[in-house]
Amino acid sequence: MATAYVLINCELGSEEAIIQQLKGLEGVKEVHGTFGAYDILAKIESDT
């Protein structure tokens, strides 16, 4: 199983909506809001 950690920048104020959308996608195992250079961290797993 492959695992990817994706760091995301987004428009100010849109973080929560994007987090909720990401949580609904297949393969997305974890999504967290962050402070610093990036706004969101997503953990994605896939068989291929």
Rg calc:
11 Å
Q: Please state roughly what percent of the residues sit in beta strands, choosing from under 5%, 5-15%, 15-25%, 25-35%, 35-45% or over 45%.
A: 35-45%
Gap between N and C termini: 7 Å
Architecture, according to CATH? Answer: 2-Layer Sandwich
Overall average pLDDT: 97
Summed up, the helix count is 1
The global form is: globular
CATH superfamily: Lrp/AsnC effector binding domain/regulation of amino acid metabolism (RAM) domain
Strand order of the largest sheet: 1-3-2
CATH fold annotation: Alpha-Beta Plaits
The tally of strands reads 3
Spans of 5+ residues with little confidence (pLDDT < 50)? none
CATH uppermost class: Alpha Beta
Major sheet attributes: 3 strands, antiparallel
Helix percentage range: 10-25%
**What is the number of domains?**
1
Class inferred from helices and paired strands: alpha+beta
SSE string = EHEE
Characterization of the model:
This protein is an alpha+beta fold. The protein has one domain (2-46): Lrp/AsnC effector binding domain/regulation of amino acid metabolism (RAM) domain (Alpha-Beta Plaits). The chain is 19% helix and 42% strand. The protein has 1 helix and 3 strands; from the N terminus they run βαββ. It has a 3-stranded antiparallel β-sheet, with helices on one face. The relative contact order is 0.40. The mean pLDDT is 97.
